[in-house]
Amino acid sequence: MQKHISNVDSAPKENGDKTLSERTTTALREAIVCGTFKAGEKLNEPKLATQFNVSRGPLREAIRRLVSMGLVEYTPNVGAKVIPLERARIIELYEVREALEGMAARLAAINMTDDEINELKKLLEIHHQHHENNAGEYMQADGDFDFHYQIIKGSGNELLTQQLCNELYHLIRMFRFQTSRFKTRSDQALVEHQQLIYAIENRDPGLAEMLMRRHIARAKQSIKAHLLSEET
Amino acid sequence: MQKHISNVDSAPKENGDKTLSERTTTALREAIVCGTFKAGEKLNEPKLATQFNVSRGPLREAIRRLVSMGLVEYTPNVGAKVIPLERARIIELYEVREALEGMAARLAAINMTDDEINELKKLLEIHHQHHENNAGEYMQADGDFDFHYQIIKGSGNELLTQQLCNELYHLIRMFRFQTSRFKTRSDQALVEHQQLIYAIENRDPGLAEMLMRRHIARAKQSIKAHLLSEET
DNA sequence: AATGTCTTGATTGTTGACAATACAGACAAT
DNA sequence: ATTGTCTGTATTGTCAACAATCAAGACATT
Questions:
Q1: How far A1 CA sits from the closest chain B CA (Å)?
Q2: What pLDDT sits at residue B101?
Q3: Taking the CA atoms of chain B, what radius of gyration do you get in angstroms?
Q4: Which chain A residues are Cβ-neighbours of B96 within 8 angstroms?
Q5: Which of B65, B95, B100 comes nearest A64 by C-beta?
Q6: Contacts of residue A60 in chain B, CB cutoff 8 Å?
Q7: Nearest CA to A18 among B76, B205, B14?
């Protein structure tokens, strides 16, 4: 049965995607993140190559990149499969996030320019509006991403930014797609974001880190509870 | 001028290295980490393929993997080059380490078994012996790695372990190779390791994290000072 | 019936050739 | 002299065919 991916061009164009293998990577990544390929599903090279309208070379490259991003598992001579996102792994993901984004907030409190902080404030304001207008919930996920993204960038640490935005980011997205049934605690999150901005504005690295870590730890606890309550 | 890498087989055999591209990855990685290829040096595909005695396919795979490990920079249609380890990047590396290994120590204090803790103690004892016998310095680098490695594994967080041991680890090694001229503060480190074990043994996650972070932050400061004093 | 071996089909690993792109040097124009 | 364009060469991107490996089912043996 043919999936809804006739070729690579159906993927979102990302500005840096010049070569075929890069476009294939993006296309395959989105397909996995969005659940077109189910968790644990085998990735057959010739079949996928046909679907994406490329030869096996670029496709293999794409698979390798997704392996290094943690979205795909690989066994030599056996093949690739979409990573099965078990409970344990999700908790692990949030623990790593807590560590890295905590550090990002600390560094952001030191390195962010005043302009960048103002941008952050504007962003929060927009989210606030949305929350009031649309009775919460809606767009919260993307909004949350934007906010965290700006702080990460504001850290000024390129390695950290890369680790979070290029590697872990897509894992988080994938998880969110699979668990969109969970309500996002959007009003709570807004308050926490607000506090975080204060800490950064006051150039208090310790507080910024602590608040960010609590923000993420709280999300982790919330998810943990949800996952347990769903246990069969 | 021919380098001292006639083919892939000269690389250290790592148990999981079955396929040619995996062996090539290991070989190329070691060559880069150990400085056979200088920082910033261009990696020419046909030339390297000849040197390693493989075709361009596996070699390209190897390069891609090293890109995702941060050892190699890549520009489409231009090619790959060994990452130039500038001062800024080294500091960044230690900031990320501080965050991740801090979290590892925290989790280790929670999750490590008593047996694992005993192993850690034995390891420290061995390092202590070496320090007294060999008037310090010697073997400190590897010893330090072993110690940190066991704590990371002891965290029980696979994602964290992978990030540290498969990605950042080799960057650190590469940096150490380039700066072996720096004296390692080995007696200081031993004391800090000792304290860390206490914290883990007493199941004090907060203290364990704090000590690990200080341990790494101190190393960062030491390196910072060295780098500044070398400024031309 | 259960276990072990063999064979077959499918899938991955590797290769070398060809196409597309970028870089360097020569040359012309201002 | 400097800038811009062009051309040839080198390098990377892509492909399709071939070799090596693995997984599953048939068959024989205990």
A1: 31
A2: 98
A3: 19
A4: 100, 103, 157, 159-160, 163
A5: B65
A6: 61
A7: B76
Nearby residues of B147 by Cβ (< 8 Å), 6 or more positions away: B120, B123, B124, B127, B193
Neighbours of B157 (CB within 10 A): 26
Contact B63, B74 (CB under 8 A): yes
Report the sign of the C-alpha dihedral through residues A108, A109, A112, A114, in that order: positive
Domains detected in chain A: 8-82 (1.10.10.10), 87-230 (1.20.120.530)
The per-residue pLDDT for B85 is 87
Q: What is the DSSP letter of A166?
A: I
State the pLDDT at residue B113.
Answer: 97
The 8-class DSSP code of residue B13 comes to P
Q: Which pLDDT tens digit goes with each residue over A4-20? A: 444 554 444 455 677 89
Q: Nearest chain B Cα to A160, which residue?
A: B96
Q: What are B154-176's pLDDT values in tens digits?
A: 999 999 999 999 889 999 999 98
8 Å CB contact of A102 and B99: yes
Hey, what amino acid is at B9? Answer: D
CA-to-C1' span, A45 to D16 (A): 14
Return the pLDDT at B184.
67
Show the DSSP H helices in B163-204 as ranges.
169-178, 186-201
The C1' atom of C18 and the CA atom of A72 lie apart, in whole Å, by 32
Angstroms from B58 CA to nearest CA on chain A: 11
- Amino acid code (one letter) for B70: G
Residue tagged 């390791």 (tokens): B193
Output the six-digit token pair for B116.
């694992």
CA–CA separation, A149 and A128 (whole Å)? 17
Q: What is the DSSP letter of B83?
A: P
Q: Which two tokens stand for residue B51?
A: 């040197």
User: In Å, what is the separation between the CA of A81 and the C1' of C2?
Assistant: 33
Query: How many helices (DSSP H) and strands (DSSP E) are in chain A?
Result: 10, 3
Contacts of A45 (CB under 8 A, 6+ apart): A56, A59, A60, A63, A79
CB contact set of B95 (below 8 Å; sequence gap of 6+): A103, A107, A157, A159, A160, B220
Which residues of chain A register pLDDT less than 70? 1-16, 134-142, 181-185, 231-232
Pick from A64, A56, A78: which is nearest to B21 by CA?
A64
